[in-house]
Specification:
The protein is of the alpha/beta class and 758 residues long. 44% of the residues lie in helices and 21% in strands. Helix 23 links the parallel strand 21 and strand 22. Helix 17 runs antiparallel to helix 18 and helix 24 crosses helix 25.
Length: 758
């Protein structure tokens, strides 16, 4: 007999969920209001009544013992005896309940069975308490169940869940057997690979975070995934999350898993693709009225998940789409539902770190057996700032006031109140057109809470002018949520921009909130070729003093890389003056040897100005330029131009910190030279200056934290595109006079420090 641990809610949801996907706004309302409403109802309980009662039981069925647990909202005394109380908040209106939701009744009746069994009762009352989150009105539905009825009901629930549980148990058995026999998928470890793999395994074993700087070309993906897979086989881990910032690095993780599968591994992985990319419709609109994949989704999803888990291991976007079409289910929601049963999940950072979109249903026990592998972790600092910041604009509320003036005066009034707040804010900004504060805008948050309540009722009623209201509703919810996180690591700034006014709660230091988001996971591995200096990234990603760090030296010979520094000023004030000289310098670089080269610039504007001079003076050179907002097909065409058999010299013009400056892998003769123009400093601006001032106040070098270190990271990433394997050779040209300064030179990798200065 094996044991399956499951909470009451996911058990009954699996069996009783039905219906269609909708916009999900009332789910967000329930999360926002749920705790407050529960506490208000529970305060009305009488003496002797119990709240938040932990219940558990074990039921053998087939070859599995089901350990079921959960907390019921209330166990209360009535004249007829004990009664389970399950409290639910709703924004859809109480008149739409029609006797209570099947999932809610099932949840309450499983709790009732556990409570009745504990207290040896022959019968027990079951009550659903619904509360309108807007009006506070309550409605209750009651029934009485005998012990025999509840026992029959619970066994039937388990019977309907059992096939799925048995499939997962069998898949886990096959997985563990295959892992025990799995060799490292290459003939030998590259230099440094074994050290990195050992550090990853050690972090998982010791329940620590690991900060790993490992050079480009060492094989970081396989060196982190392989030891994590082995840790699953030994029972240390139950699940792997491979987190990335870009689509191209997700592909590398899929390839690593395929490599291990070719050596005998049988492990199930799911790649989560963003909703707008995964959607099978021309327009992303999650409504049963317009999308056949949303209509009746929950009636078909169990069959779809069972099917794909029965037949597939590496579930890429293409595989998920195939099964989504077969079962007529939304591919994005399908990927999320399948992910809960997968051994490895490949997805963007935000599914763990962003409070708006994270996977909410991960149980604490599961997190304790999960490792997070954070690829290209240097990106998480600025991504974290963005995730934990929030902005509101005046314009939407003015438009909503007009749209709902007659259709819904309550919505119009709530929007008008917010609009008037912004009018006063614009006056307060004065001639500077800006205002700073170290406090969260409490008055605005209160006004938004009123607006959210009115918007919920209108949205639940399915009124007109829905999209702008829905977008503003979600933005308001996010602003309210971030206000609850606000502390000394934040600053609030308002700006007047033409006819609009915006206010932003800006997260200056995301380290604490990032560490809170990955708290509870067994281990977290942050790795990147440019996680340097390690002290900075440990600070910004929320390390504790006892967490591990490792720095792997480059495995490549110095002769493979010819580094040159040309001290030409690329400062903003000098760019126009030196642009022609820069174009000549780039042409001189590619004249030495025929092949493929890439030039990285700190901005599109700078790139375009030099590109025009370059092509005007050297029209014979084949060129290709990174465009703004390139789609996936355009990106693939750009990279495909860098052919091994290219008979002409190709010069690719790209942007530092852009899609081609990290994550791409052009091995061998596909790339023989890289020029990095400038030291990558972010553009001077309000937010960067606020970050600088904050860290100066914390006793650190604010200019480095805000400008120098993020900028040099872009330089290191771009230069890292060049040497990707033991056979690669190439020229790296660093163009800026600041590369001669000791401060910048010290931030270069060891293998770059022997650079020849022109």
């Amino acid at each position: 007999m094996t044991t399956v641990n499951i909470s009451v809610r996911p058990l009954v949801e699996y069996v009783f969920r039905s219906g269609s996907i909708d916009s999900g706004f009332h789910t967000a309302a329930s999360m926002h209001e749920g705790t407050r409403i529960h506490q208000r109802v529970q305060r009305a309980y009488q003496e002797g009544d119990q709240k938040e009662v932990y219940l558990q039981m074990e039921i053998p069925f087939g070859r599995i013992v089901y350990h079921i647990e959960g907390r019921c909202d209330g166990l209360i005394q009535t004249e007829e005896g004990w009664m389970i109380d399950e409290i639910k908040s709703t924004s859809a209106g109480l008149d739409m309940l029609e006797g209570g939701h099947a999932v809610h009744w099932a949840q309450a009746e499983v709790y009732a069975y556990m409570a009745a069994k504990d207290q040896e009762l022959e019968k027990i009352g079951v009550q659903l308490t619904y509360v309108d989150s807007g009006t506070g009105e309550e409605r209750r539905f009651k029934r009485t169940r005998t012990m025999a009825e509840l026992a029959e009901f619970v066994i039937d629930v388990i019977r309907q869940y059992a096939l799925y549980a048995e499939l997962r148990q069998e898949n886990a058995r096959l997985r563990d057997e295959s892992i025990r026999a799995l060799p490292f998928p290459f003939a030998a470890y590259r230099e440094g690979q074994r050290k990195l793999a050992g550090a990853v395994y050690g972090a998982a074993k010791e329940k620590k975070k690991l900060f790993a700087k490992a050079p480009t070309g060492i094989g970081k993906t396989i060196s982190t995934l392989f030891p994590s897979v082995k840790a699953i086989g030994e029972g240390l881990l139950g699940q792997i999350f491979y987190l990335t910032a870009k689509t191209i690095t997700r592909t590398a993780a899929e390839q690593a898993l395929t490599l291990m599968e070719n050596k005998g591994l049988r492990l199930q992985s799911v790649t989560i693709t963003a909703k707008d990319k995964a959607c099978l419709q021309e327009e992303v609109f999650c409504s049963k009225d317009v999308c056949p994949y949303a209509d009746g989704y929950y009636d078909r999803i169990n069959g779809a998940v069972f099917d794909i888990l029965s037949h597939e291991t590496i579930m890429t976007r293409q595989v998920l789409e195939q099964y989504a079409r077969k079962h007529r289910v939304c591919p994005f929601e399908f990927s999320l539902d399948t992910a809960y049963a997968a051994d490895a999940i490949i997805c963007d950072y935000n599914y763990i770190y962003d409070p708006r979109v994270s996977l909410k249903r991960l149980p604490e026990e599961q997190k304790k057996r999960t490792v997070l592998l954070v690829d290209e972790a240097h990106n998480l600092v600025d991504r974290g700032r963005e995730m934990f910041s929030a902005v509101m604009n005046k314009a939407n509320f003015l438009q909503l006031k007009r749209d709902f003036k007659t259709a819904n005066p309550a919505v119009a009034a709530a929007a008008d109140a917010v609009n008037k707040y912004f009018i006063e804010l614009r006056k307060a900004c004065g001639d500077t057109r800006q205002q700073l504060s170290k406090e969260a805008p409490a008055e605005l948050v209160e006004l938004l809470e009123v607006f959210v309540g009115e918007a919920e009722r209108e949205l639940a009623a399915g009124g007109e002018e829905r999209q702008l209201l829905l977008d503003t509703y979600f933005a308001s919810q996010n602003f309210i949520r971030m206000a609850k996180l606000y502390d000394s690591r934040y600053i609030t700034y308002a700006e007047v921009l033409r006819n609009d006014v915006s206010i932003r709660m800006f997260c200056l230091d995301p380290s604490y909130l990032l560490s809170q988001a990955d708290k509870g996971f067994r281990s977290v591995v942050f790795f990147s070729a440019t996680l340097a200096p390690l002290s900075y990234y440990r600070d910004m990603l929320g390390a504790d003093s006892e967490d591990y760090s490792i720095s792997i030296p480059s495995p490549f010979r110095r002769e493979q890389l010819d580094v040159r520094i040309h001290p030409l000023s690329t400062r903003y004030r000098d760019r126009e003056r030196t642009a022609e000289q820069l174009a000549d310098l780039l042409h001189q670089m590619i004249s030495g040897k025929q092949g493929n080269y890439m030039f990285f610039f700190p901005s599109y504007q700078y790139l375009q100005s030099v590109y025009e001079i370059f092509t005007g003076k050297y029209p014979e050179v084949q060129t290709i330029v990174q465009g703004t907002g390139m789609g996936e097909e355009e990106r693939e065409r750009f990279l495909a131009a860098f052919r091994v058999d290219n008979q002409e010299t190709l010069a690719g013009f790209a942007v530092l910190g852009g899609i081609f400056s990290e994550g791409i892998d052009l091995q061998g003769d596909r790339l023989i030279g890289v020029a990095v123009v400038g030291v990558g400093l972010p553009q001077l601006g309000l937010e960067r200056n606020l970050i600088r001032d904050y860290f100066n106040g914390e006793g650190k070098n604010g200019y480095d934290y805000s400008y120098v270190l993020p900028g040099m990271n872009k330089v290191l990433q771009a230069g890292g595109r060049l040497i990707r394997s033991e056979e690669d050779e190439g020229v790296l040209l660093l163009i800026d006079d600041r590369f001669k300064q000791p401060h910048y030179r010290n931030l270069l990798p060891e293998e770059w420090k022997a650079a020849h200065i022109k």
